[in-house]
Specification:
Strand order of the largest sheet: 2-1-3-4-12-11-10-7-8
Low-confidence stretches: none
CATH topology: Rossmann fold
CATH architecture: 3-Layer(aba) Sandwich
Number of domains: 1
Structural class: alpha/beta
Largest sheet: 9 strands, mixed
Shape: globular
Order of helices and strands: EHEHEHHEHEEEEEEEEH
Number of helices: 6
CATH class: Alpha Beta
Helix content: 25-40%
Radius of gyration: 15 Å
Strand content: 25-35%
C-alpha cells in the first residue's frame, strides 16, 4: 500500500513516516500534489501554522480537494485535520473545504495546549480495538465543524470541549498526534491503513 505523506513545510514528518511504515505502508514524502494523489491514500501531517501551510499548498490544493471529493482516503493530523476545513482564525488562506466549518482558537487561559487528554470516541473503524484512548496534543487552535455529525470523537481542555476526530466519507482528521500517543495511537494509524 502506497501512502503519500504530504510535505507543506511542516515538521514531524519523520516520526509519522515511521509510524505508517510500522503499520505496513510504503511511504513517500511528497511536495507535488499532482504526484501525491496517485498514491493509495494521503496523510496530511501536523505541526505548523494554518496560513503558511495553506500558502504552501497554493493553487495545487484544487487537485487535492478533487481527489478527496472523489473518495481518495486521507488522514489529517493536527494541522492536517484543520486544513480539511474552510479556513482558520490562525491565518489567511483557504482550507481544503472537505468539511464545513472553520478553525478557532481554544477557549483557555493557557496556550498552547500541550500534553495528554482523554478522547471520548464514537463507534468508527478508526477506533476499532481501542477501549481507552488518552492522546497527545500540541495545539492552540481547534476545528469548529458546522455539522457535528462529522465529529467521531471529543476531548476537553480546561472548560473547552472540541472535536478530537472528524470523518466525512473516506476522509478522517484527528486533532491529536497518534504517532506520539503510544500503542493506542499506533492502533489508530493501523486502523486507518486497514480502511485504505
Amino acid at each position: 500500500m502506497k501512502i503519500a505523506l504530504i510535505d507543506y513545510g511542516t515538521g514531524n514528518l519523520h516520526s509519522l513516516a515511521k509510524a505508517l511504515q510500522l503499520g505496513g505502508a510504503e511511504v513517500t514524502v511528497e511536495h507535488q500534489l499532482e504526484r501525491a494523489v496517485a498514491a493509495d491514500a494521503l496523510v496530511l501531517p501536523g505541526v505548523g501554522a494554518f496560513g503558511a501551510a495553506a500558502a504552501q499548498l497554493g493553487a495545487a490544493a484544487t487537485v487535492l480537494h478533487q481527489a478527496l471529493a472523489a473518495g481518495k482516503p486521507c488522514l489529517g493530523i493536527c494541522l492536517g485535520m484543520q486544513l480539511l476545513f474552510e479556513g482558520s482564525e490562525e491565518g489567511t488562506g483557504p482550507g481544503l473545504s472537505v468539511l464545513n466549518g472553520h478553525v478557532r482558537r481554544i477557549f483557555a487561559q493557557r496556550l498552547p495546549h500541550i500534553g495528554w487528554n482523554q478522547v471520548v470516541m464514537f463507534d468508527d473503524p478508526l477506533f476499532g480495538g481501542i477501549d481507552d484512548l488518552v492522546a497527545y496534543y500540541a495545539n492552540s487552535f481547534v476545528a469548529a465543524p458546522t455539522d457535528e455529525t462529522d465529529v467521531i470523537a471529543w476531548t476537553q481542555y480546561g472548560a473547552d470541549r472540541f472535536p478530537a476526530a472528524v470523518r466525512r466519507g473516506r476522509v478522517w482528521g484527528v486533532q491529536f498526534h497518534p504517532e506520539k500517543s503510544g500503542q493506542a495511537g499506533l492502533r489508530v494509524i493501523r486502523n486507518f491503513l486497514a480502511q485504505v
